[in-house]
Amino acid sequence: MRLRRVVFDLLVYESVDELEQEDHILMNEAVKARKNAYSPYSKFNVGAAVLLDNGEIVIGNNQENASYPSGLCAERVAIFYASAKFPGVGIKTIAINATSKNFVVNKPAAPCGNCRQSISEYEIKQRRPISIIMSGETGEVLKCNSVSDILPLAFNSTFLG
Fold first, then answer.
1. Does this model's pTM top 0.90?
2. Residue 109 burial (10 A CB sphere; 0-12, 13-18, 19+)
3. Which of 3, 51, 88, 113 lies in the 20 to 30 Å Cα band around 123?
4. pLDDT tens across 66-99, in order?
């Protein structure tokens, strides 16, 4: 037996204002998208903005449903919409922003497991990483270079033969 340590680099910004211009614009789009989230049950509003290789920005927000869990997270709404509207165009970056009607979100909102796996599928499909920028209402902003940083042992159907 041997121990294998998995580590990754994570950029930590004190606020959104420290982001480079392209990332700042993308996060602003995620904030705008978040404002139209439909979250009557969780009261947790999430917006996502996806920057594509062609320069287009596609947004999404969480969409809840009384028939839980048939709703969708903002990240998957944005990625699936981007793929439907711009098939074959690669994804460069996804920005995620969250707030709550019940408490102040003072930590970055990271993608859930389902969203991490979905992002991973697109990384595999395009054979290159997708940067992820995460923020809450206040506090630090995090950026990682790839979903594999935050999902190092993703399920990959290519392992099945």
1. yes
2. buried
3. 3
4. 987 889 999 999 999 999 999 999 999 999 999 9
- Three-state SS for the chain is CCCCCCCCCCEEECCHHHCCHHHHHHHHHHHHHHCCCECCCCCEEEEEEEEECCCCEEEEECECCCCCCCCECHHHHHHHHHHHHCCCCCEEEEEEEEEECCCCCCCCCCCCHHHHHHHHHHHHHHCCCCEEEEECCCCCEEEECCHHHHCCCCCCHHHHC
Check if CATH label 3.40.1010.20 holds for domain 11-19+26-112+130-150: no
Place of tokens 């121990």: 3
Domain boundaries, the chain: 11-19+26-112+130-150
